[in-house]
Design brief:
By secondary structure, the chain is α+β, with helices and mostly antiparallel strands. It contains 13 helices and 13 strands. 14% of the residues are buried. InterPro entries: NSFL1C_SEP_dom_sf, SEP_domain, UBA-like_sf, Ubiquitin-like_domsf, UBX_dom.
């Protein structure tokens, strides 16, 4: 059986329509089963009129229309997935049903639609009143559905054979991949009808004056579950509880306070945008270095140039000391390595420099301090 034939069979099972009608709706919606089924149920006049046979007289037309209406209600109730409204149409009183009027002679008949029924179908508040009446009648009836039983499935997945030196580890596929797809569980939804609109659980308000929301009410009133409104999947069962607060205005749900959401700073790392300040250890180190007389004028000039640099870098040595030194932003990264080398006590041991956070090794020494992003940064010395 091809995929199109399977789709036609599923459409017929859901709508109880003929094969030709199923094929027509599926072709019009590019063989999309969900859109085709929704389109079919959105046209109740067309589906009901196609199911009614031609009448020989006004009296026989009335009887056939009544029988057709009963068959349609029983078939839709059997295929419905949600209890709170699934059997509503079966339990309607005669006063709530739309009356089919007929006119004509002995051998011909013409069905005339009651204008009051059309007005009630298009009025959102009328739809809400009908829906609440049906839900109230349904609440007094016992639940005839079978209880949901949990099905414990066996393990389905990929296993591995234990290997050895000679044999490599093999992967073994266990079970059919198609069986991995689980059936959606039954869910509960609460619809609250307020003065100006309705609300699903604690979500947003759907106003009655919005035409899109009126379509949702029509679908609910027909005993079906709008997938987008109730946030359910195709063929998923859903229990709907209705709360009537038509005399109260909508009250937005209170905001739930959760945990902290944001960014944190690691302890010891510099605050972004704040200039680096020298610690007492650094001041002491700077004073000691200032008391040391340079060996020649070139070293003195270099020390003076570095002291007025525009690129402060905080250096954490392996012995625990911290030094804030101002380099020139145009100096190469190798100058920083040389400075650390001069202040390292154990010169015979290999070491490297890295950013403090995130920890990243500094390898390219040909870049300038500005290009390497070392300005106002924290650099740590680590033993190799």
């Amino acid at each position: 059986m091809s995929s199109n034939e399977e789709t036609i069979s599923e459409f017929i099972g859901l709508t109880m329509s003929s094969e030709s009608i199923a094929k027509q709706y599926l072709e019009n919606h590019n063989w999309d089963l969900q859109e085709a089924v929704e389109s079919y149920f959105m046209e109740p006049e067309a589906s009901s009129s196609s199911a009614q046979p031609a009448a020989a007289s006004s009296s026989t037309s009335t009887n056939s229309a009544a029988q057709s209406s009963k068959k349609q209600k029983s078939s839709s109730a059997a295929s419905s997935k949600f209890k709170s409204f699934s059997d509503i149409r079966e339990n309607d009183d005669d006063d709530d049903e739309e009356n089919n009027l007929f006119t004509g002679g002995e051998k011909s008949g013409l069905q005339v639609e009651n204008p009051d029924d059309v007005k009630r179908r298009n009025d959102p508040l009328g739809l809400v009143q009908d829906l609440l009446k049906k839900a109230e009648r349904q609440a007094n009836e016992p639940d005839s559905r079978e209880p949901v039983q949990e099905v414990k499935n066996a393990f389905v997945g990929t296993g591995h054979k234990l290997g050895s030196v000679e044999n490599e580890v093999d992967s073994v596929q266990i079970g059919d991949s198609a069986s991995k797809k689980k059936t959606p569980q039954r869910v509960n939804r609460t619809i609250t009808f307020w003065k100006e609109g309705f609300q699903v659980d604690e979500g947003q308000l759907y106003r009655y004056d919005d035409p899109k929301n009126a379509e949702y009410l029509k679908i609910l009133n027909s005993g079906r579950a709008p997938l987008a409104l109730l946030n359910v999947e195709m063929f998923q069962e859903v229990d709907v509880q209705v709360i009537k607060k038509m005399d109260e205005e909508f009250k937005p749900p209170k905001r739930k306070f959760g945990g902290f959401i944001g960014k944190g700073q690691r302890l010891g790392s510099p605050v972004p945008g704040e200039p680096l300040s020298a610690s007492p250890e650094v001041v002491e180190q700077t004073e000691e270095s200032a008391n040391v007389e340079p060996e020649n004028k070139e070293d003195a000039a270099l020390a003076e140039e570095e002291s007025v640099g525009d690129a402060p870098v905080q250096i954490r040595l392996s012995n625990g000391k911290r030094i804030v030194h101002k380099f020139n932003s145009t100096d190469s990264v190798e100058v920083v390595f040389d400075f650390v080398k001069q202040n390292t006590e154990d010169s015979g041991r290999s070491w490297f420099l890295a950013f403090a956070f995130p920890l990243k090794k500094i390898e390219d020494t040909t870049q300038t301090i500005k290009e390497a992003g070392l300005i106002n940064s924290v650099v740590v010395q680590r033993w190799s």
